[in-house]
Amino acid sequence: MSTHDRGETGAHEELMELAAKQAALGEVRGAPAADPVNEPMIRHWLAAMGDANPAYLANGVAPPAMAQVWTMQGLGPRQPSPVDEVMTALNEAGFTGVVATNCDHTYHRPLHVGSGSPPPPASPT
Questions:
Q1: In angstroms, rounded to a whole number, what is the distance separating the alpha carbons of residues 40 and 56?
Q2: How far is CA 68 from CA 8, 53, 78, 95, in A?
Q3: 68 backbone dihedrals φ, ψ, rounded to 5°
Q4: CA distance to 60, 67, 101, 111, 117, per residue, from 108 (Å)
Q5: Which residues pair with 111 in a beta bridge?
Q6: DSSP collapsed to 3 states, 63-97
Q7: What is the pTM assigned to this prediction?
Q8: How far does CA 72 lie from the centroid of its chain?
Q9: 3-class DSSP assignment, residue 60
Q10: Euclidean distance between CA atoms 87 and 95, whole angstroms
Q11: Distance, CA of 28 to CA of 37 (rounded, Å)
């Protein structure tokens, strides 16, 4: 039975329970990057954002907010996410789009060109 079938009050209660469950998880490590940090993507990002700071490419460093460029999963097949249950419940309750979100980020180190490469395949032993 979807949250929509339970009525507005039941859907609200279920969504609040799921939100509390998600918040209790705290910080969750995301999926590994599929590609290494690279200059073409940095250049595209800088152009799209209107950021003319030459230091990024000159120093081989990506703007900090670009972390999601390499870590967000695409629309195709993907690994399960801790928020899948919440997103499913929101969709079933009729909330099918996201207008805005609030994310708090902590950057521990710069994103250097070449970093974030997927680990090499395990060698047979």
A1: 12
A2: 34, 20, 15, 24
A3: -70, -25
A4: 17, 11, 22, 10, 17
A5: 62
A6: CHHHHHHHHCCCCCCCCCCCCHHHHHHHHHCCCCC
A7: 0.59
A8: 4
A9: coil
A10: 9
A11: 21
pLDDT of residue 24 exceeding 70, the answer is yes
Query: Dihedral sign, CA of 80, 86, 87, 89?
Result: positive
- 3-state DSSP call for residue 41? helix
pLDDT classification of 59: cutoffs 50, 70, 90: very high
- Picking from 117, 43, 33, 98, the residue whose alpha carbon sits closest to that of residue 69 is 33
CA atoms within 13 A of residue 14's CA, in its CB half-sphere? 20
With vertex at residue 31, the alpha carbon angle to CA 51 and CA 64, rounded to the nearest 5 degrees, is 20
The residue assigned the tokens 């279920």 is 14
